[in-house]
Specification:
It is a single chain. Helix content is 6%, strand content 23%. It is mostly beta strands. The protein has one domain. The strands form 3 sheets. The protein has a 4-stranded antiparallel sheet with strand order 1-3-7-8, with no helix packed on it. The chain has a 4-stranded antiparallel sheet with strand order 2-9-10-4, with no helix packed on it. A two-stranded antiparallel sheet has the order 5-6. A hairpin with a 2-residue loop joins strand 5 and strand 6. The radius of gyration is 16 Å and the shape is globular. 23% of the residues are buried.
Length: 171
């Protein structure tokens, strides 16, 4: 696979083109033209994964990380600046989308979260009924883990854009 060559032809593709690498295959609702071509200038894409690399105001050490009530996490979650880090096998680079709205406050009792908004189907790749099942997490060392949804053991960050909370089950 030549990512540069394959990406240069993405405009001619569809859901079976190179863009399939940017969406979890479990969620066919995400890999659609409307999300791939989010703006007219093609400067922005809505993807099916959350990436934890530094971007915009989300920089290493300044992340607005929140944790479930009475949960501590080692190593702590952070936005990534470089690939070679300590605890690479338990530090995330990306994960499946699990997006909740409205915003979740820090140290919230997340065991009571209810995904009642029907639009969550686009925001959660693996779900059953009205709750996430979990998600895949890409570690900094390159392996992928399945993380079971355990509402009382989450890490998340909040955005002011549409008041979204991006959740990740802890390892």
């Amino acid at each position: 696979m030549n990512i540069a060559k394959d990406m240069s032809a993405y405009q001619a593709g569809g859901e079976d083109s190179i863009r399939k690498f940017f969406y979890c295959p479990a969620n066919r609702f995400m890999n659609i033209d409307l999300l791939w071509y989010t703006d007219l200038g093609n400067h922005k894409r809505t993807l099916g994964f959350q990436w934890y690399n530094e971007k915009g105001s989300f920089v290493q050490g300044a992340g607005p990380w929140n944790y479930s009530l009475n949960v501590t996490r080692q190593p702590p979650m952070d936005f990534r600046r470089k690939m070679g880090i300590q605890y690479a096998s338990s530090s995330e680079l990306a994960s499946d989308n699990i997006i909740y709205t409205p915003l979740i406050t820090n140290n919230a009792d997340t065991s009571v979260l209810k995904f009642v908004n029907t639009s969550f189907i686009q925001n959660v790749s693996h779900y059953a009924g009205t709750a996430p099942l979990g998600g895949n997490a890409l570690a900094m060392d390159g392996h992928v883990d399945w993380r079971k949804w355990t509402p009382a053991n989450l890490t998340w960050y909040n955005t002011t854009f549409q008041n979204l909370s991006f959740c990740i089950p802890n390892p």
